[in-house]
Amino acid sequence: MKKTRILIVDDHEIVRRGLRPLIESEWGWEICGEAKNGREAVELAAKQKPDIVVLDIGMPELNGIEVTREIRRILPGTEVLAFTGTENETLVHQIFAAGARGCVLKGEATTHLIPALKALCEHQPYLGSRISRIVFESYLQGGVAAAEVAPGGLTVREREVVQLLAEGKSNKDVATALAISVKTVETHRATIMRKLGFTAFADLVRYAVRNQIVQP
Hints:
Helix 8 packs across helix 9 and helix 8 (156-166) packs across helix 11. The chain is an alpha/beta fold. It starts with a strand and ends in a 6-residue tail after the last helix. The protein has helices at residues 13-24, 38-48, 64-74, 89-98, 109-121, 129-140, 146-149, 156-166, 171-178, 182-196, 201-210, and strands spanning 4-9, 29-35, 52-56, 79-84, 102-105, 126-127. A six-stranded parallel beta sheet has the order 2-1-3-4-5-6, sandwiched between helices. It is built from eleven helices and six strands. The protein folds into two domains: 4-140, Rossmann fold, CATH 3.40.50; 150-210, Orthogonal Bundle (Arc Repressor Mutant, subunit A).
């Protein structure tokens, strides 16, 4: 019988070490790789073609929402389980809009991780108990505005540039990370500031934090 291949993505080694024995305790499951940042996660997923990706939403270099969107684009059969320490309604909606089918809080891992992975093995959705409460309360209140789910109308590349800049990287660093020219980064930066109506870089950083593009 074909084993279920699972990729773990978290920037904290202690979390990855904690997840591995939980997952490997289930018969027929194997860890096919570990990634410590978002860009590495996309590259490793493309190479290993996992059945499921367990993904921390707050990842450096490329956040979990963009990672989910990219993995689902290149591997539509791969399921994504969002694994987060943040009870944030907007973030939950954004990760589902990006293509994740499950979401579990890190504090509920011992109770909900295995059931969530079993559900995703069957391509069924799964929400941890506290995430279910967040979604249900949001539903009762009319849900999250579309503008909150896709903030600012930025393109995927522009959101990548925002994250890298907000993480403190220079234009040259961003150019190297994205394999583009410094001039192109400058053009993206100017376009982003114009789209968002910002004149100060500090406004861009606050925007990135507020919209969960980077973690505070």
